[in-house]
Write a structure and sequence with these properties.
This protein is of the alpha/beta class. It is built from 20 helices and 18 strands. It is elongated, with a radius of gyration of 29 Å. Bound molecules: S-adenosyl-L-homocysteine.
Length: about 525
């Protein structure tokens, strides 16, 4: 090991990383790169905890609490000390700070301490909440027609104090757009100061709370009225105040809060591996997704049946895949046996739906048959129409699954070899959290993408009685991907509100959007 390596090991490094304003998609690539390598992460309440997903599970997570105090909050001094201590212990430390670390973030104070202790550091800028709040409220903070200047100010200091750092007389008319951080408490005095120093009381003002998150709320008024508007709407920190004629453009540009599923909290019940597509599409439309993993997928104990068939796949006429997981686990086993896609050269392949077919393409496999109806029955009918009498059909699938497909094919004269390749197991419970959310009416909709998600979800909820089940689901809409899933919902005493015509994730999301459009978002 060279001398340099040794010294790098002995002292760590601190990265001050801007977490962005809230939307986890607004983190920089550099920020993500560093989070993925962090050994210690120190974060506070403005940094979205969703970003912690990027951090390896082995890292140490330290929450330093609310800005401006609170029972368990660290003091600024405490945070500075902590960073020094962790770096001296040799760790790669990411200090994750809301917005941009150097905009009203006390980032410099943390750096000064590191400099004094001789600790290497780097600062990664972030999207500051002022630009994000304006953009996500449909307000361009500059515009050729309205303003050529912007001022970012803090509203935290008491504007009536003698020694104010803000020259209200110059600011009031000196900057076209004024964005006030931490300005809610002092809003009456701030607006009064601006008016007193010559800003037109009719100047439009917007206040945006929790910008760029599903909880975003914005209200609008003028310098003269905004204090009342904020009080009546009960807007609390964290919020930004945007003052200037550009606020007028909101009427045309507002986009974020106008997305069809904005403000809707939707539960996604899928396996860990599969949730991402549904979540991505729902979030694209503005929904706030709560992911509940109802199934964990695990390997089966015994692959004998599949292994035997793989030895001599030429004997098979058809290979059927009825789920994405079947594809994944089939190929996993193929690889484990030291084989690859070439083994499939002579067998025809059929799948139950488009997504499964797309998954196969990742392995370089083109599908020979996709039924028009994306169900087991649909697939059986399509195969029977091709003529399956006397043929040998391999069906790798879940350990426990419906028997209708193999039964229909065998009735038509085929030999079906069912090979279990994975199994569904319920994950360790998050019962209390889920029940709390349902009971608090914090959930607008629950989505189900298979019968087992329904059964597992209800096992997780574990209602004591039919009456309790109905009470927990009062006001909660239910979306089911297809008729079989819907039937399972109904069998359990609940009502299905949304069901797409075609059983795909994207059709399901379209149906959910339509549902809220036509019902106007009301129950
Ligand atoms: N460094 C941060 C600002 C920290 S000061 C940044 O660059 O954004 C804390 C203040 O920032 C809050 O009181 C509020 O005024 C503002 N703020 C931070 N995140 C916000 C958000 N998502 N929505 C609205 N205001 C926010």
């Amino acid at each position: 090991m060279s001398e340099r390596d040794v010294s790098e090991l002995s002292v760590g490094k601190v990265y001050l990383v801007g977490a962005g304003p809230g939307d986890p998609g607004l983190l920089t690539l550099r920020g993500r790169y560093l989070l993925e390598r962090a050994e210690v992460v120190v974060y506070d309440y403005l940094a979205n905890t969703k970003l912690l997903r990027h951090v390896p599970g082995s890292a140490e997570f330290i929450y330093v609490g609310k800005k401006g105090g609170g029972l368990h909050a660290f003091t600024q001094e405490g945070i500075n000390k902590l960073l020094v201590e962790k770096a001296l212990a040799g760790s790669m430390v990411v200090r994750l700070k809301g917005g941009d670390p150097f905009i009203f973030g006390r980032g410099a104070e943390e750096i000064e301490e590191l400099v004094q202790a001789g600790i290497p550091f780097e600062v990664v800028p972030g999207v500051t909440s002022a630009t994000a709040a304006a953009t996500y409220a449909g307000i361009p903070i500059t515009h050729r027609r309205y303003t050529a200047s912007v001022a970012f100010i803090t509203g935290h200091e008491d504007p009536t104090k003698k020694e104010s750092n803000i020259r209200w007389d110059k600011l009031a008319t000196g900057a076209g757009t004024i964005v006030v951080y931490m300005g809610i408490k002092n809003l009456p005095v701030i607006t009064a100061k601006l008016i007193e120093h010559g800003r037109d009381p009719q100047t439009p003002v917007a206040v945006v709370r929790w910008a760029s998150t599903p909880e975003q709320r914005s209200v609008e008024g003028t310098l003269a009225t905004i204090t009342d508007v904020v009080r009546e709407a009960d807007i609390k920190p964290p919020a930004l105040v945007i003052v200037g004629d550009v606020v007028r453009l909101r009427r045309t540009i507002d986009w974020y809060e106008k997305r069809p599923l904005f403000g809707k909290r939707i539960v996604v019940t899928r396996t860990r591996e599969q949730a991402s597509e549904l979540v991505a599409l729902l979030e694209e439309n503005g929904a706030d997704c709560l992911e509940y993993s109802t199934i964990n997928i695990e390997p089966v104990e015994d692959y004998q049946i599949l292994d035997r068939e793989l030895e001599d796949l030429d004997q098979c006429d058809w290979l059927l895949f009825t789920s994405l997981n079947a594809v994944t686990w089939f190929f996993r086993r193929l690889r484990e046996r030291g084989l690859d896609s070439r083994r499939l050269h002579s067998v025809k392949i059929a799948v139950v739906g488009r997504a499964t077919g797309e998954e196969l393409e990742k392995y370089g496999i083109r599908v020979d048959l996709v039924p028009e109806k994306f169900t087991g029955e649909g697939l059986a009918e399509a195969l029977i129409a091709e003529g399956v009498k006397g043929s040998r059909i391999l069906l790798p699938r879940a350990q426990v699954a419906r028997d209708i497909l193999p039964e229909m094919l065998e009735d038509a004269g085929a030999t079906v070899v069912v090979a279990p390749v994975y199994r569904n197991v319920p994950p360790p419970g998050r019962k209390e959290q889920l029940r709390g959310q349902l009971a608090g009416h914090g959930i607008d909709m629950v989505t189900f993408t298979s019968s087992s998600t329904v059964t597992n979800f209800l096992t997780m909820v574990d209602p004591a009685s039919e009456a309790e089940l109905q009470e927990l689901f009062r006001g909660v809409r239910i979306a089911a991907i297809g008729p079989i899933t819907a039937k399972t919902v109904q069998k359990n005493g609940l009502r299905v509100d949304v069901q797409p015509e075609r059983y795909t994730i994207s059709d399901m999301v379209d149906a959910i959007v339509d549902h809220y459009r036509t019902s106007g978002g009301m129950f």
